[in-house]
Specification:
Length: 294
């Protein structure tokens, strides 16, 4: 999983204090103790729910003091008892944030979806979409596991950029998309190496080709090109191996992967011309040489 983002997420300010006193939270033990008693006794002992303002201020204070569960409780109580108050929309957003801090990402997404459904034109909509995307991003799995979560994170991050390209969240969303793409490329490389070890060269080539075609900006491309040289040589596709080596030589001449490819090509007497004419064709050699292979 990626490390927790360090991007600072601002919090709405507390509601102005009035003369209403603070009310304590209802202890769970007290609710359990009330079971089995008469209705009149329960009514006599049942604590009263505080005002919407009090609940909101309690929730914000709890959030600021890192008592996230208490914060969620306060915001949830506010929403259930005062669904139309002036504090309810912020409470939905803040409860989503508190759940995010608790690593309860599905609950956070559910709360944020509710906020966006009820308040699609809110000034805080960009933040809500961004926080929702972070919930998916934090769940990105190791490359050894299924990457559906990475795809969902990319989709959510791209939605932030599409909807709010000028927002302060768009740049961070793009950076995280790039990391997700690198992650997906890493998964393709992992599978490709496994196929190559099993001598299933055609399947391995398909994985490496996808990295070069679909993830050209990632740091996995040099290795993908070098391994394509290897599998093409193993399949007897000497000209494809030579052209792929030329692409690698032009774009990554200082890479250790180019050195490995050079040794493989030289062993097959394919070095002559591999970096001559191709190397002088200009910056578009990558795309021209690549498409000539397929």
């Amino acid at each position: 999983m990626f490390a927790r983002t360090s991007h600072y997420v601002s919090q709405p300010s507390r509601a102005p204090r009035q003369t209403a006193p603070w009310l304590a939270l209802l202890p769970l033990a007290g609710l359990l103790a009330a079971c089995g008693q008469s209705a009149s006794t329960i009514n006599e002992r049942a604590p009263r729910v505080g005002s919407a303002e009090t609940l909101y201020n309690n929730g914000v204070d709890a959030l600021r003091s890192d008592r996230y569960l208490l914060s969620v409780n306060q915001f949830d109580t506010l929403q259930r008892n005062y669904p139309y108050s002036q504090y309810t929309a912020n409470a939905q957003l803040m409860e989503g944030y508190a759940n995010y801090l608790l690593n309860k990402y599905p609950e956070a997404v559910q709360q944020l979806d509710r906020f966006l459904e009820l308040h699609p034109t809110s000034a805080d909509a960009a933040y809500a979409f961004y926080l929702r995307a972070l919930c998916y991003y934090e769940q990105v799995a190791d490359v050894q596991r299924d990457q559906q979560g990475t795809i969902e994170a990319m989709d959510a991050l791209e939605e932030v950029i599409t909807r709010f390209p000028q927002s302060p969240y768009a740049r961070d969303a793009q950076l995280k998309i790039d990391l997700c793409r690198d992650h997906l490329a890493g998964k393709e490389m992992l599978v490709g190496r496994w196929y190559q070890q099993q001598n299933d060269y055609l399947a391995a080539a398909g994985r490496y080709q996808r990295v070069v075609q679909d993830f050209q900006t990632t740091n996995h491309v040099p290795e993908a090109l070098e391994r394509l040289v290897e599998v093409y040589l193993d399949m007897g596709l000497l000209e494809q191996a030579r052209k792929t080596g030329a692409v690698l030589a032009y774009n990554y001449p200082s890479s250790k992967w180019y050195e490995d490819a050079y040794d493989h090509l030289r062993a097959h007497n394919l070095i002559k011309g591999a970096t001559g004419k191709d190397h002088k064709q200009g910056r578009n050699v990558f795309s021209r040489a690549w498409h000539s292979v397929f």
